[in-house]
Amino acid sequence: MAGLHSVVMVRILVTLAIMLFAAIACNLSDERPGGTPVSDNGSNGPPVTPVSRPPSVPADALEVKGDTLLGEIERRANQPPNGIDTRALLTAACQDEVMVLWTDAETIHASLPCDRFWSDETVRDFSSQEVAIKLTVDATRFQIFVETLAGGQAEFTVGGIWVE
Fold first, then answer.
1. DSSP bridge partners of 69
2. pTM of this structure
3. Are residues 120 and 48 in the same domain?
4. CA angle 114, 47, 60 (to 5 degrees)
5. In this structure, are 80 and 111 located in the same domain?
6. Residue 122, SS3?
């Protein structure tokens, strides 16, 4: 009887190990459960040197010189996320090395090589989502962090940020 008990325990341990490895593998994928997008577009790269205002950035767009929160999403265990002053991301594009995010509250322009911008599919995934956007500026780095209420996230390291 003790031998049968040992075999059952070994099978249970092997099953638990397989489930653990499967969970770890799911967390390493580029997409979260439920299809919420996660995008890393060179945000972990080396610090950048600020660039001059690109010609396509409107003259009335203000240069961002400090950290700025455009909405916020509070997340608490066992509760739905709470959007505070969030905005709708209408769409986004990149042309001539300038990324543009259009929201229902402002337009954000940022210097970014377009090969580090979203694919068309990712633009569709993030568009029409309720978002909070964090603009981080320090002496050597400019970052844009976009988070959707549904849990999608994207971060860009850019050469400069302007908002209109």
1. 134
2. 0.70
3. yes
4. 60
5. yes
6. helix
- The CA distance from 92 to 127, in Å, is 7
The whole domain housing 99 covers 37-163
The count of residues in the chain is: 164
**Using CA atoms, how far apart are residues 67 and 99, in angstroms rounded to an integer?**
18
75 lies in the same domain as 127: yes
**Please, where are the H alpha helices in 28-135?**
120-126
Q: What is the pLDDT of residues 62-75, one digit of tens each?
A: 999 999 999 999 99
Q: Are residues 14 and 51 in the same domain?
A: no
Per-residue model confidence as pLDDT tens digits over 79-114: 999 999 999 999 999 999 999 999 999 999 999 999
Cross-strand pairs, 101: 92, 108
Residue 118 CA to residue 37 CA, distance in Å, equals 11
If one counts the domains in the chain, the total is 2
Nearest C-alpha neighbor of 125 from the set 150, 105, 100: 150
CA dist 104 and 65 (Å) reads 22
